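Quick one, probably user error.
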């Protein structure tokens, strides 16, 4: 596996940077990895590398580039975590989706065994992964503890591709009422699978953080990998061996 920094042309003009993790063999498929409020930090790069080791081409676009390029924040440092929330308040979701569409197009230029591209997002990225299932042609989408999804349920009828929502029982930023609204609003959509993890809080899969919970994180990752193999394809499904 190798990694590199690449430049992507924005649909509205300008360009932004992204971290690209490349598997050692031809990729099965590609994944747009969508940042938390903390930017393209070490955790996001490590997550990209981990999925590249599973055979996927993984791109992590810098969605804060219009506000402050190159943001890398640490969730364990309060001042940095607070800055993440400040950036979140200034972040324009519609522009972010446009950048994610550009990221999809960028990945589709690369050869892969299935030609498919999915998305995987955490926190802010979890909300954006939900919207990717609605507003883009991404082939499969995974949302971890996405925020404000309950405010976008009216768009759920437009979901065209498979979607997983990983939700934590004790989420500080998605109230029990919001979680109930999400489950109620999506329960009859056969394309949507919701997993809830008891006794864990927001960020439970963020390795190295105080929120990290190994058992729940590993279960969610196993489910995500199985979902991607089913919906994006894998070497086994294609009759190819690495």
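Nope, works fine. Designed sequence:
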């Amino acid at each position: 596996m190798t990694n590199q920094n690449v430049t992507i042309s924005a649909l509205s003009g300008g360009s932004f940077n992204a971290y690209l993790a490349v598997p050692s063999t031809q990729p099965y498929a590609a994944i747009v990895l969508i940042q938390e409020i903390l930017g393209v930090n070490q955790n996001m790069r490590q997550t990209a590398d981990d999925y590249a080791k599973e055979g996927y081409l993984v791109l992590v676009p810098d969605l804060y580039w219009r506000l402050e390029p190159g943001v890398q924040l640490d969730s364990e440092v309060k001042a940095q975590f607070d800055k993440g929330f400040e950036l979140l308040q200034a972040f324009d979701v519609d522009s972010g989706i446009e950048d994610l569409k550009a990221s999809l197009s960028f990945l589709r230029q690369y050869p892969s065994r299935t030609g498919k591209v999915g998305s995987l997002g955490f926190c802010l990225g979890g909300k954006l992964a939900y919207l990717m299932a609605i507003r883009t042609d991404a082939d499969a989408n995974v949302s971890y503890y996405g925020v404000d999804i309950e405010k976008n349920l009216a768009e759920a009828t437009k979901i065209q591709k498979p979607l997983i929502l990983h939700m934590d029982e004790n989420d500080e930023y998605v109230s029990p009422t919001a979680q109930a609204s999400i489950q109620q609003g999506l329960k009859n959509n056969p394309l949507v699978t919701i997993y809830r993890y008891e006794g864990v809080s927001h960020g439970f899969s963020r390795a190295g953080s105080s929120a990290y919970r190994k058992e729940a994180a590993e279960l969610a990752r196993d489910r995500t990998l199985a979902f991607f193999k089913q919906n994006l394809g894998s070497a086994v499904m294609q009759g190819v061996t690495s």
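The first helix runs from residue 42 to 53.
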